[in-house]
Amino acid sequence: MTATTQPAAPDTTNDREPLLVVDDWKTYFKTAGGLLRAVDGVSLRVDAGSTIGLVGESGSGKTILSRSILGLVRSRRKVEPGGTITYDGVVINKLSPKERRRYWGKDMAMVFQNPMTSLNPVLTIGRQLTEVLTLHLGMSKALARARAVELLESVGIPEPKKRADEFPHQLSGGMRQRVTIAIALSCNPRLLLADEPTTALDVTVQAQILDLLDEQQSARDMTMILVTHDLGVVAGRTDTVAVMYAGKIVEIAPTKTLFTETRHPYAEALMRSIPTMDAPNHTRLFTIPGRPAQLTGEPKGCRFAPRCSYAQEKCLTEQPPLVAPERPDHSFACWFPVGTKPGQEALERNLSAGQTAAGTSMSLMTVLGA
Ligand SMILES: Nc1ncnc2c1ncn2[C@@H]1O[C@H](COP(=O)(O)OP(=O)(O)OP(=O)(O)O)[C@@H](O)[C@H]1O
Ligand SMILES: [Mg+2]
Fold this sequence. Notes:
eight-stranded mixed sheet, 32% helix, disordered N terminus, binds magnesium ion
């Protein structure tokens, strides 16, 4: 049993080598309201060939963290006051922008939320793919064209030869996202960051795109970071889940453990907002009360405390460290964790004082379909 008081990269307990290690990473922005802590000391270990889900509500820092890993946060107001990002044994955050770019494509690639903004509207689909292949892999035009058609076929685009000559606006949203996935996969990246790849799509197409990413991940033994605000998306699709709140990881565990032994009240609240098949008709979905945290200013206590049913005085004044008191691969940052005696007592105290924000716990097994 290990208990860490420092935010060291959690041990995800298997014998695989980590492909990526993020250690105490911070990305801040200078804003009129003060220093905004978009990513505030995140540690993450991503093992080669695994899939990790990065979950949190809007503004929790998921995109900035993902972009920081690729070195893609471009802002004059950006400050990176500390931490390291190590990819395949190399500390990449110390590299020059030119050296960093060498990792794009073949090592790391990203699928963005909105395919319309990541595709060039004035170039054909085929041209966008062949450009990547000629530039990064040095393929001849003819070879790149043949490979582009193959790639389109592999991501489920019907009539790929014909589609290659079409422009992005001629394709449906789902097809466009398939094209961006084909572009991201074109150089056989070892690490794929998929940032809310299905948010702009309707539900049935969402499932198809997630299945496609799953297929490609296992076929290529690729490592994947799947970013989403929806905890339902990561169930059954990831090995590990990291829950982010206000720029920090508040809980990280193997996926099943996170669902069955949830400890952080924010993770629990996210679970309660997942729709379940067995809920009676017209059941209103749970929403987390209060507003997302202010990211400016030095955090005094736990950033989630104002919205938390378990919060006590201590939570408002002392920041809980990310610790693993139960098992080495399960870390959480909470003084009164869900499902523990201190947590239960805190909840009961608040309930009897009529102070709960988020309500009582639920049967988490229903979420897993167990
Ligand atoms: N260039 C910037 N300048 C200042 N603040 C920024 C900048 N880019 C992002 N932020 C802020 O950083 C915080 C984290 O943003 P981020 O885009 O990572 O959130 P997210 O978790 O991806 O949210 P969403 O689910 O909406 O995509 C937000 O408060 C955002 O407003
Ligand atoms: Mg985002």
